[in-house]
Every structure is written in structure tokens, then in C-alpha cells.
UniProtKB/TrEMBL annotation:
Protein name: Ribbon-helix-helix protein CopG domain-containing protein
GO BP annotations listed: regulation of DNA-templated transcription
Highest taxon of source: Bacteria
């Protein structure tokens, strides 16, 4: 008597039913293996792609904001210099003083020194 026959007799089912159950069990395990082998990496790739797109969009917005702020600051300095008769050197020194004041305020609000030094 084979192992299959013993299992069939112990469970009061036919040998064919035992084989069918074993095959179904193996297929269920294989589905789980397929999911972890093929589906999870696909899901991970989709999530990574979405995150990359989000970061790219955020980067684009930050760059546009930086350019606009730079243009506005430059135009403001040019207008200020024209209205008050400042030279380029005086204007540069005024800008440096304003920068130092701004970074000092950031540090007082808890921004770390290395984060501020990254801006220089």
C-alpha cells in the first residue's frame, strides 16, 4: 500500500481525490510564490515611478520659484540702487548684510548651521 493509499483510506476519500487535493495545495503555494516573485516587484516599480514623478514635479516647482524669486530680488536691487544712487559695490555690501541678517534669524528659529551653510 502506497502513501497515497494510506492517506486516502485514513480520510475516507478516493486516491484520485487525494491527488487532486495535493495538486490544488501545490498550485495555491505556487500562486503565492508567483505573487511574491513577479507581482511585488511590479508593484514596487510602479510605486517608485510614481514617487520619482512626484519628486520631479516638486523639483520643477522649486526651480521655477527660485528663478522668479531671483528675478524679483535682482529687479528690486536695481530699482533701489537707481532710486538711492548706490554703486554696485555698495549694493553688494547691502545684499551681504541682508543675507547675514536673514541667516542669523533662521538660526535663532532653530535652523541648523550646516543647513544655512548649504545656502551659501
Amino acid at each position: 500500500m502506497t502513501q497515497l493509499d494510506k492517506i486516502a483510506k485514513a480520510n475516507d476519500i478516493s486516491r484520485t481525490a487525494v491527488i487532486e487535493e495535493m495538486l490544488l495545495h501545490q498550485l495555491e503555494q505556487q500562486d503565492e510564490e508567483l505573487a511574491s516573485t513577479f507581482l511585488l516587484p511590479r508593484v514596487e516599480k510602479v510605486l517608485v515611478d510614481l514617487f520619482d514623478r512626484h519628486l520631479w514635479s516638486l523639483r520643477t516647482v522649486l526651480i521655477q520659484g527660485t528663478v522668479e524669486a531671483s528675478v524679483a530680488a535682482h529687479l528690486g536691487l536695481v530699482k533701489f540702487a537707481a532710486d538711492n544712487g548706490y554703486t554696485k559695490g555698495q549694493l553688494s555690501e547691502l545684499r551681504n548684510q541682508a543675507y547675514r541678517r536673514a541667516t542669523t534669524r533662521l538660526k535663532k528659529k532653530g535652523v541648523q548651521d550646516d543647513e544655512v551653510s548649504d545656502l551659501e
